[in-house]
Amino acid sequence: MKNIYRIIDANLNRAREGLRVVEEICRFVLEDKRLTLTVKKLRGDLSRLKIREQAIKARRALADVGRKLYTERESKRKNIKDVFQSNIKRAEEAVRVLEEFIKLVDPKSGVSFKKIRFKIYEVEKRISKKLLGCF
Q1: CA–CA separation, 42 and 23 (whole Å)
Q2: Per the count of CB atoms within 10 A, which of 1, 59, 102, 112 is most buried?
Q3: Which domain holds residue 98?
Q4: d(Cα 20, Cα 2) in Å, to the nearest integer?
Q5: How far apart are CA 84 and CA 70, in angstroms?
Q6: Phi, psi (5° rounding) for residue 21?
Q7: Is 76 left (phi over 0), alpha (psi -120 to 50) or beta?
Q8: 128 found inside a domain
Q9: pTM recorded for the entire structure
Q10: Structurally, how many domains does the chain consist of?
Q11: Residue 132 — very low, low, confident or very high, per pLDDT cuts 50/70/90?
Q12: Structural domain includes residue 68
């Protein structure tokens, strides 16, 4: 089970990190208070999950075989839209992983992650539309 909690921990971090970048775009690029708050709340929803404490206990960051992997694509961003797309997709994918693996430790929680994932899809649409108008 420890490895399951490590997967959960890594993906909680990944989802929150991606949403934090998106939040900064909403705040400083779009200067949209409502979108900023929406993304901030989504990030908060992930931070408040009770599974987080168990996941942190299982963390082995320095021993993680993926910690030094860095693809060529990860090292380049063309513009703000590219930064946004990379990070919103990062968050969506991480929440999907969470939705699946949480079922192994708390089957009822899967629906919570599904709801968060669909909220992220919706906010992606709103932000994408707004970003198109900026560039």
Answers
A1: 10
A2: 102
A3: 2-62+73-132
A4: 27
A5: 19
A6: -65, -45
A7: beta
A8: yes
A9: 0.86
A10: 1
A11: confident
A12: no
**Within a domain: 107:** yes
What SS3 string covers the chain? CHHHHHHHHHHHHHHHHHHHHHHHHHHHHCCCHHHHHHHHHHHHHHHCCCHHHHHHHHCCHHHCCCCCCCCCHHHCCCCHHHHHHHHHHHHHHHHHHHHHHHHHCCHHHHHHHHHHHHHHHHHHHHHHHHHHCCC
pLDDT, tens digit (0-9, with 9 covering 90-100), for 17-56? 999 999 999 999 999 999 999 999 999 999 887 676 676 6
For residues 113 and 64, give the distance between their C-alpha atoms in angstroms, rounded to a whole number: 24
Residue 99 clears pLDDT 70, i.e. is over it: yes
